[in-house]
Amino acid sequence: MMKKNLYRLFGFSFFVIGTVGIFLPLVPTVPFYLIALIFLLRASKRDIVKLKRIPIIGKLVYPYIKKSLLYLKKWNTQPQSSYT
What we know:
The protein has four helices and no strands. By secondary structure, the chain is mostly helical.
């Protein structure tokens, strides 16, 4: 339980930093969103739905989150091969 809360804390703080990066040109946005997505996926998939429900930013950001979820699925689709 403590680990999930820690993942949520890191996920939402990286999301906030990424959102600040939309308005400040020196702060990159996409890497922070990807890191936030990884942390939130480890915590719970419900947290990603919570991001979508944020009034203004959620609707703008959710398509990017959806794209990055597709990229993460591509990386994790092949199971680890075992040596026999």
